[in-house]
């Protein structure tokens, strides 16, 4: 065999070895996650543990990190957790009147009515939050999902071709700035974003304002909201206050944001494939062949801690039920007797300006 062929063969074997090594290092005990009582980074693979430490050290959003509050949060009941989430992270969208948003031209562009039920004065009875996880494949959950009064999906998650597993109803779609700004998503022409209520989250890493204004002018009757950063960081504070470790100082995942939105709008919420079931896979999304364990347990987002918190909020469901099934059932805020008024959370100015300047 010629030397260059030997070299190529050696490199091929080396790449195969590295791929296998990465795969097994990332195979964290996901099935055990739903059996854990307290959040623990020990559940993460070495690579994801390093990623968590990296984000803690870099602290991109200049969050004031404090020692985790520990056991008091661990002792809260599911009702207490839901009430804390309602009080400390009340659903808010931008109205364009506050700084720095007023100075950025948001006033007069965002919807005048707050994000709420599709029919004013009424509540949505049953809602489905459909994760984009690869575990949705071969689930045959489509008909069950479509039976809900409202269905929330994320980003560019399609339904066409996957109806048997994910259904085809979409009432609300939560998106990040890439969907609007990157041509590959065909925001203005794709049927994915044509109907229903659109909700945007996260910081505008891409040019977001221009396509947002363009969309609002072309389709003024389509509700298109922007979640207030105070809402996002209020969610983060609830996760942190109920975790024994210091979590990643980054906004929550879209999944947790979507759950919180629907808890505010619906009487009962079913969340599909957020807590990994027996179909768990490292396939990130059911519609594309990308494999990464971080999609399940998190690297940038504090996903592990979010999921353990949601598990605790669903106290009526046992860990084994969560693992064998595909959904978590949560009561909407309106059905939980919390007493008192929600707390308006206003993060330090650095959190807002860091994200929007």
UniProtKB/TrEMBL annotation:
EC assignment: 2.4.3.1
The secretion signal range is 1-22
Please give the positions of the paired cysteines in each disulfide bond: 127-266
Task: Offer a single GO CC term for the protein.
Answer: Golgi cisterna membrane
Tell me, which GO biological process terms does this entry list?
sialylation
Q: Read off the Pfam families from this record.
A: Glyco_transf_29
Bilayer topology annotation? Single-pass type II membrane protein
Q: Which GO terms describe its molecular function?
A: beta-galactoside alpha-2,6-sialyltransferase activity
InterPro entries tied to this protein: Glyco_trans_29, GT29-like_sf
Pathway membership, UniProt: Protein modification; protein glycosylation
Record keywords: Disulfide bond, Glycoprotein, Glycosyltransferase, Golgi apparatus, Membrane, Secreted, Signal, Signal-anchor, Transferase, Transmembrane, Transmembrane helix
* Reaction catalysis annotation: a beta-D-galactoside + CMP-N-acetyl-beta-neuraminate = an N-acetyl-alpha-neuraminyl-(2->6)-beta-D-galactosyl derivative + CMP + H(+)
- Subcellular localization: Golgi apparatus, Golgi stack membrane; Secreted
Domain of life according to the entry = Eukaryota
Regarding protein family, the annotation reads:
Belongs to the glycosyltransferase 29 family.
Quote the protein name from its UniProt record: Beta-galactoside alpha-2,6-sialyltransferase 1
What organism is recorded for this protein?
Answer: Muraenolepis orangiensis (Patagonian moray cod)
């Amino acid at each position: 065999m010629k030397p260059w062929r030997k070299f190529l063969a050696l490199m091929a074997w080396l790449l195969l070895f590295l791929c296998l090594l990465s795969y097994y290092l990332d195979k964290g005990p996901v099935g055990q996650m739903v059996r854990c009582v307290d959040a623990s980074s020990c559940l993460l693979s070495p690579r994801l543990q390093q990623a968590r430490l990296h984000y803690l050290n870099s602290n991109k959003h200049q969050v004031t990190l404090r020692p985790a509050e520990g056991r008091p949060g661990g002792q809260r009941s599911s009702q207490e957790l839901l009430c804390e989430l309602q009080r400390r992270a009340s659903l808010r969208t931008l109205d364009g009147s506050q700084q720095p948003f007023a100075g950025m031209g948001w006033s007069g562009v965002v919807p005048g009515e707050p994000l709420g039920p599709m029919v004013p004065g009424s509540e949505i009875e049953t809602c489905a939050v459909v994760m984009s996880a690869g575990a949705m494949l071969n689930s045959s959950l489509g008909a069950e999902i479509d039976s809900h009064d409202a269905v929330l999906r994320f980003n560019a998650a399609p339904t066409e071709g996957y109806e048997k597993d994910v259904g085809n109803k979409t009432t609300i779609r939560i998106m990040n700035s890439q969907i609007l700004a990157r041509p590959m998503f065909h925001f203005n022409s794709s049927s994915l974003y044509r109907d229903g209520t659109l909700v945007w989250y996260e910081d505008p890493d891409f040019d977001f304002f221009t396509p947002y204004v363009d969309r609002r002018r072309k389709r003024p009757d389509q509700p298109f909201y922007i979640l207030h950063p105070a809402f996002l960081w209020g969610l983060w504070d609830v996760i942190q206050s109920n975790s024994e470790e210091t979590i990643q100082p980054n906004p929550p995942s879209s999944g947790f944001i979507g759950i919180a939105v629907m808890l505010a709008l619906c009487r009962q919420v079913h969340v599909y494939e957020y807590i990994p079931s027996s179909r768990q896979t490292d396939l990130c999304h059911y519609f594309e062949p990308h494999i990464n364990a971080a999609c399940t347990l998190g690297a940038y987002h504090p996903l592990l801690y979010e999921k353990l918190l949601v598990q605790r909020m669903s106290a009526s469901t046992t860990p084994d039920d969560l693992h064998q099934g595909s959904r978590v059932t949560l009561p909407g805020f309106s059905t939980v007797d919390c007493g008192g008024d929600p707390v308006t959370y206003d993060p330090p100015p650095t959190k807002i300006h860091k994200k929007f300047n």
